[in-house]
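User: Sequence recovery, please. Input:
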């Protein structure tokens, strides 16, 4: 995603690889569509309609982003499309019954549309022949400073959420939402990421930074404003709008230099941050969370919009 700064200089603002080969391994999910279930499912198992389903564990005992061979490792069918919003690409994938332990066959379509007013629209659709959890997201790492900005500590972030989900030592939600008030998770007004990461806080220590789901305020049929990210030096700004109830804010804590990005650059912690729109982690095991169960005869749809502009 190449975006101009306040002086009109165009630079890439997502982390990625120089060639397609890098994406075939991609242990950090750079730019990927993640599923069948984005984020974590505790102990790689859940019970649905009285039947326990065991998934492939790939994050200690847990299933992360769909398991070891999730949608980020799938070969999708791609075609060009033009709709009322602009040109785009349509990605289609068939996930068979039992894929990574999930019940039911699932047909998924993800459409990326680039509009004339600098928005990237991501539309998700899914249909299943058997009840199954579905939670799809987009896992780009953003660095609005461009190629020369080594980290996102100077970025300002705002997330329109009054609550977040605390996690246990393995990053599984404890089950109860907690108010952000008087915590480092109060991002209701724009704050520097680095300033918050310097604070002493048990939840930040668990994730080595932010790796938490925020309970978004927005509700309604259309996308609601969820977050803003800006970089004062370049003047670039991004807004995130979504129909989803949650947003995972992740500050690239587990990047350790072993992944080599564009231009041969080792990607260290804080090289980029993710704003992953989603339903809540471990929802299949939490009846008090918004349901992620898709049943036959119904369609699963979600929309997230990334809008780009400038500040100052």
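Assistant: Recovered sequence (312 residues):
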């Amino acid at each position: 995603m190449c975006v101009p700064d306040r002086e009109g200089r165009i630079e890439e603002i997502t982390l990625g690889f120089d060639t397609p080969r890098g994406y075939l391994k991609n242990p950090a999910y750079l730019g990927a569509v993640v599923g069948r279930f984005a984020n974590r499912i505790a102990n790689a198992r859940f019970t649905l309609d009285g039947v326990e389903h065991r998934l492939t564990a790939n994050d200690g005992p847990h299933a992360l982003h769909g398991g070891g061979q999730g949608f980020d490792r799938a070969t999708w069918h791609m075609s060009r499309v033009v709709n009322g919003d602009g040109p785009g690409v349509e990605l289609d994938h068939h996930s068979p019954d039992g894929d990574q332990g999930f019940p039911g066959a699932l047909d998924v379509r993800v459409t990326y549309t680039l509009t004339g007013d600098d928005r990237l629209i991501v539309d998700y659709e899914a249909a299943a022949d058997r009840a199954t959890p579905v939670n799809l997201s987009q896992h780009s790492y953003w660095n609005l400073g461009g190629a020369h900005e080594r980290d996102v500590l100077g970025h300002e972030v705002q997330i329109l959420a009054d609550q977040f989900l605390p996690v246990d030592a393995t990053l599984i939600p404890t089950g109860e939402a907690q108010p952000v008030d008087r915590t480092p998770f109060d991002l209701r007004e724009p704050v520097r990421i680095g300033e918050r990461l310097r604070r002493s806080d048990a939840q930040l220590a668990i994730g080595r930074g932010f790796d938490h789901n925020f309970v978004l305020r927005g509700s309604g049929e259309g996308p609601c404003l969820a977050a803003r990210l800006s970089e004062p030096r370049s003047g670039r700004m991004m807004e995130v709008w979504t129909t989803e109830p949650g947003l995972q804010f992740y500050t690239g804590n587990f990047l350790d230099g072993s992944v080599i990005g564009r231009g041969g650059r080792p990607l260290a912690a804080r090289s980029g941050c993710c704003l992953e729109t989603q339903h809540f982690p471990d929802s299949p095991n939490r009846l008090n969370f918004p349901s992620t169960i898709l049943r036959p005869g119904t369609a699963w749809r979600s929309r997230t919009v990334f809008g780009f502009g400038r500040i100052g």
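The mean pLDDT is 96.
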